[in-house]
Amino acid sequence: MAELWITQACTPFGWQNGGMPRFLTLADVAEQLQINSPAAYALVRSGELKAIQVGGRGQWRVEEKMLEQYIEERYAEASRMIQESKSKSV
């Protein structure tokens, strides 16, 4: 049974989004957002990006859906800013 789980988890279709694991490191997050690792850490520390600490050394992990939620919120904020600037210029 363990072999079946490992086989399914390692295939591209074993993950929710077809390739990324459920939890991402801050380095993974930084790569996805095309920012540096300290910037990813700052997003977590500020509370903008929800994350958890795991393991004995308290390493940060970001659930893939939390990263997607963060990105959606940034798009919504950008849309609001564009609408505000349009309404001010009219």
Summarize the structure.
The chain is mainly alpha-helical and 90 residues long. The chain has helices at 2-10, 26-33, 37-46, 64-89, and strands at residues 23-24, 52-54, 59-63.
The overall pLDDT, averaged over residues, is 84
CATH level 1 name of one domain: Mainly Alpha
Task: Tell me about the largest β-sheet.
Answer: 3 strands, antiparallel
Order of helices and strands: HEHHEEH
Shape type: elongated
The Cα radius of gyration reads 17 Å
Characteristics:
4 helices, elongated, Multidrug-efflux Transporter Regulator, Chain: A, Domain 2, single chain, 11% strand, 90 residues, disordered N terminus, mainly alpha
Describe the structure in your own words.
With 90 residues, this protein is mostly helical. Helices cover 59% and strands 11% of the residues. Strands 1-3-2 form a three-stranded antiparallel β-sheet. The longest helix is centred in the last third of the chain and has 26 residues, at 64-89.
